[in-house]
Amino acid sequence: MGLVLGNVENSGMPPEYELEHPKAEHCPGPESENAGKGDACNGCANQSVCESLPKGPDPDIPAIVENLSNIKHKVLVLSGKGGVGKSTFTTMLSWALSADEDLQVGAMDLDICGPSLPHMLGCVNDVVHESNAGWTPVYVADNLATMSIQFMLPEDDSAVIWRGTKKNALIKKFLKDVNWDYLDYLIIDTPPGTSDEHITINKYMKDSGIDGALVVTTPQEVALLDVRKEIDFCRKAGIKVLGLVENMSGFVCPGCKGQSQIFKPTTGGGKGLCAELGIKFLGSVPLDPRIGKCCDNGESFLDAYPDSPASEAVLQVVESLRDAVGDL
Amino acid sequence: MEDVVSPAQSLSKIKHIILVLSGKGGVGKSSVTTQTALTLCNMGLKVGVLDVDLTGPSLPRMFGLENRSIMQSREGWLPVSVKVPVSCKGSLSVVSLGFLLDDRGNSVVWRGPKKTAMIKQFITDVAWGELDYLIIDTPPGTSDEHISLAEQLRWCKPDGAIIVTTPQNVAVADVKKEINFCRKVELNILGIVENMSGFICPHCAECTNIFSSGGGKRLADQFSVPYLGNIPIDPRFVEMVENQGASKPSLAELYKDSSLFEIFQLILRKVLDQNHPPRV
């Protein structure tokens, strides 16, 4: 019997303290020695909570560093915008890397409210097992492991109605207690936005070292607008941007082979953004309706249609990415 | 958590409230919100739009309002109004966090409590005035923003939610979670819209189902909620958004002449025919 969410809530969740009110201006931070005592704390609604919190760095961080110490490269897949293909790209990246039998690959799904990796890797019905070594991730192939909240849901379509604090606690658990063993790559898929999940993963993984972030976008300005914010976040958080991929760029009609731009790059697309912000452009991946089908069926698109221009583009991005983390 | 037992004063002159939800990101919540607002406005109604996607606000861009800002008045924050054609009797105004940022590239890196506080302000402090419809655009997921909205609107009797999905299974799986969320917080579901349902090749007019098809209808049947219709991918909508401007025709005018307007009228007809009594 695997873990289901009921257990997660009741046992073994690390304590998290919730600030019920927004932080005051010039807040010294709830972890600081001055928490609850600073000038800004007078009159702040959080004062009493802050004062009673344990001070100093989180005691779990060394445990996280220890647990992740056998992982060579840790890559975040980010985008400010939803639905641009973060999970699709994480999946393809995982399949592509694990095609090399000598590489051990892990894919972690941080999207708590809308987990997609299990669907795309074709392991929705698997469960996570708990042993004294920690939680065992689900193995899709001998050298490809994955972890997602989806494996713990009582029903496939259960809604995870959690505020940030609870999501943070689960993310910590994923980092501290999942028994990844030795990995060459840990690819971390994230939800859209720049909020709890992003702050938390950065906070807990800072000491174990994140190689950097792969940013995914689509060509239209409405998406680029949000992606700019994500890159701004990376800069603020000190996460290195390894490069940017433009997904869904261009579509070739299977009927007449005519090219069209479905999501028009009216402001220069991903390439323009890279030039503007001084980021490496890793390539563009065209739309191919078969990608969506493969993701729905949990098959590897790269294996099924190696001749597709999209496959070639993805493989090229993977090469540049390995280059960027210094693996080649 | 403090209890909100009576509806906020700021909403007291709003007849109907509709939320646009989806568990999945990038399925077109903001474009459905935009088009719903434009369609209602073209029908001669007074429409307000509230963007509660705090970390990725898209509505200022959609309505061509990127350099505008919110003004403060004695009654509260004044929403930014959108230009509508002279012939149109309706009106359109927008509130978004995007209007409060210095630079469009700035990120808003906020944890839950801060987002909750902002949403509360958006609900209680905006001087909307008299509105026929308030459309609320949401971020993906079922987390802080959604819980806060549900709490704030608990006693406000919203008409319900329009759920947006795209056809592929991976999106539908997330949207199912959103429907379960609505059930849990007792939010009425007005119906499901399937967006990005097929792309008509401009060269040969052949329709390709880029993100497959039929997912929305199946979902509606499975959960026995109304199916409102499907919207094809139309690159011209993005063009319209880019082409609006102070000296150029307004978005409402451009939209009235597009093929999407007809599709949306049919969709909204199905919503309006449900005859939800006005809140006030």
TrEMBL record, chain A:
Q: Does the keyword 4Fe-4S apply?
A: yes
Q: What is its main location?
A: cytoplasm
**Keyword 4Fe-4S part of the UniProt annotation:** yes
Name any one GO molecular function: 4 iron, 4 sulfur cluster binding
Q: Which Pfam families match?
A: ParA
**Residues the record lists as binding [4Fe-4S] cluster 2:** C253, C256
Q: Where is this region: Disordered?
A: 1-37
Basic and acidic residues: bias regions: 18-28
Q: Where does [4Fe-4S] cluster 1 bind?
A: C27, C41, C44, C50
Per UniProt, the keywords (alphabetical) are:
4Fe-4S, ATP-binding, Cytoplasm, Iron, Iron-sulfur, Metal-binding, Nucleotide-binding, Nucleus
Localization in the cell: Cytoplasm; Nucleus
Q: Where does ATP bind?
A: G80, K81, G82, G83, V84, G85, K86, S87
| A biological process from GO | iron-sulfur cluster assembly
The GO cellular component terms are: cytosol; cytosolic [4Fe-4S] assembly scaffold complex; nucleus
Its annotated function is as follows:
Component of the cytosolic iron-sulfur (Fe/S) protein assembly (CIA) machinery. Required for maturation of extramitochondrial Fe-S proteins. The NBP35-CFD1 heterotetramer forms a Fe-S scaffold complex, mediating the de novo assembly of an Fe-S cluster and its transfer to target apoproteins. Required for biogenesis and export of both ribosomal subunits, which may reflect a role in assembly of the Fe/S clusters in RLI1, a protein which performs rRNA processing and ribosome export.
Q: Which family does the UniProt entry place this protein in?
A: Belongs to the Mrp/NBP35 ATP-binding proteins family. NUBP1/NBP35 subfamily.
HAMAP family reported in the protein's UniProt record: Mrp_NBP35, NUBP1
Q: What is this protein called?
A: Nucleotide-binding protein 35
Q: What organism is the protein native to?
A: Torulaspora globosa
Automatic annotation (TrEMBL), chain B:
Task: Report if keyword Iron-sulfur is assigned.
Answer: yes
User: Highest taxon of the source?
Assistant: Eukaryota
The answer on whether this UniProt entry bears the keyword Chloroplast reads no
- Compartment(s): Cytoplasm
Q: Name one GO cellular component term.
A: cytosol
Q: Any idea which UniProt keywords this protein has?
A: 4Fe-4S, ATP-binding, Cytoplasm, Iron, Iron-sulfur, Metal-binding, Nucleotide-binding
**Which GO terms label this protein's molecular function in UniProt?**
4 iron, 4 sulfur cluster binding; ATP binding; ATP-dependent FeS chaperone activity; metal ion binding
UniProt xrefs under Pfam families = ParA (PF10609)
Q: Which residues bind [4Fe-4S] cluster?
A: C201, C204
Which GO BP terms, alphabetically?
Answer: iron-sulfur cluster assembly
Major localisation = cytoplasm
Provide the function of this protein: Component of the cytosolic iron-sulfur (Fe/S) protein assembly (CIA) machinery. Required for maturation of extramitochondrial Fe-S proteins. The NBP35-CFD1 heterotetramer forms a Fe-S scaffold complex, mediating the de novo assembly of an Fe-S cluster and its transfer to target apoproteins. Required for biogenesis and export of both ribosomal subunits, which may reflect a role in assembly of the Fe/S clusters in RLI1, a protein which performs rRNA processing and ribosome export.
- Give the family from UniProt: Belongs to the Mrp/NBP35 ATP-binding proteins family. NUBP2/CFD1 subfamily.
Name the chain's protein: Uncharacterized protein
Q: What organism does the UniProt record list as the source?
A: Torulaspora globosa
